[in-house]
């Protein structure tokens, strides 16, 4: 079984993914794949990023994440262009992992905020998509706990996909309450997963 968990920053994707991992699922972390990709960018992607963001995106020591973050988050036009360069490669790598999981009959959970941009995953009937919702103030509190300042939080939230983008592709929409995660998993997710397996 392949489950994709999506939703905006701070909604609990990683927390819910960890619950699936505890139950034997492999974790496909799209953020981690994206970070690794930026370090070892294929030449065409490297050239595209260089053309879009200038010579500050890569330095003599490698990918300059803070430079890119400062320019991309909060600038919707630039973010859309950035995603058009980067997201197809991330989706391709995730699709390769999904194929391997299917071939070896391994359960996997995909954790990614930008899954709505990936048409192949959204069309794959073997991938069950769950969209998470958490009120904005709760999300902000979580991001502060991760060390983000108010300016970075606002920039991130301003550049997110709409809540409809997540709901439109999801098989299930869930409102997350972190204190109830184990309850949620036992009472909601287990029956949900059983239903998906049928």
Question: Can you describe this structure?
Answer:
This protein is of the alpha/beta class. It has one domain: Rossmann fold. The chain has ten helices and seven strands. It has a five-stranded parallel beta sheet with strand order 2-5-1-6-7, with helices on both faces. Helix 2 crosses helix 5 and helix 3 (43-53) packs antiparallel against helix 5 (76-103). 30% of the residues are buried.
Write the layout of secondary structure elements.
Blueprint: E1 2-6, H1 13-22, E2 26-29, H2 30-39, H3 43-53, E3 58-59, E4 62-63, H4 65-72, H5 76-103, E5 108-111, H6 119-123, E6 127-133, H7 136-145, H8 150-158, H9 163-169, E7 172-175, H10 181-197
Helix pairs in contact: 2-5, 3-5
> What is the topology, as strand order, of the major beta sheet?
2-5-1-6-7
- Return the average pLDDT rounded to an integer: 89
Structure annotation, total helices: 10
Strand portion: 5-15%
Instruction: Report on the biggest sheet.
Output: 5 strands, parallel
Based on CA atoms alone, the radius of gyration comes out at 17 Å
* Uncertain segments: none
What is the N-to-C succession of helices and strands? EHEHHEEHHEHEHHHEH
The CATH architecture assignment turns out to be 3-Layer(aba) Sandwich
The number of domains is 1
The CATH homologous superfamily name equals P-loop containing nucleotide triphosphate hydrolases
Structural class: alpha/beta
Distance between the termini: 11 Å
């Amino acid at each position: 079984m392949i489950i994709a968990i999506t939703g905006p920053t701070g909604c609990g994707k990683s927390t819910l993914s960890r619950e699936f991992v505890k139950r034997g699922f492999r974790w496909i972390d799209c953020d981690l794949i994206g970070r690794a990709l930026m370090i070892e960018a294929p030449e065409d992607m490297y050239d595209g990023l260089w053309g879009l963001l200038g010579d500050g995106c890569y330095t003599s020591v490698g990918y300059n994440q803070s430079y890119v973050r400062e320019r991309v988050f909060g600038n919707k036009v630039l973010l859309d262009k950035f995603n058009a360069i980067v997201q197809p490669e991330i989706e391709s790598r995730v699709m390769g992992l999904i194929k391997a999981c299917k071939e070896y009959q391994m359960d996997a959970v995909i954790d990614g905020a930008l899954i709505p941009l990936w048409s192949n995953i959204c069309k794959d009937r073997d991938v069950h998509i769950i969209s998470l919702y958490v009120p904005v103030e709760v999300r902000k509190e979580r991001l502060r706990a991760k060390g983000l300042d108010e300016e970075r939080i606002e920039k991130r939230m301003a550049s997110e996909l709409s809540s409809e983008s997540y709901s439109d592709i999801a098989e299930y929409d869930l409102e997350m309450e972190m204190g109830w995660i184990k309850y949620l998993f036992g009472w909601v997710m287990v029956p949900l997963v059983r239903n998906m397996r049928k």
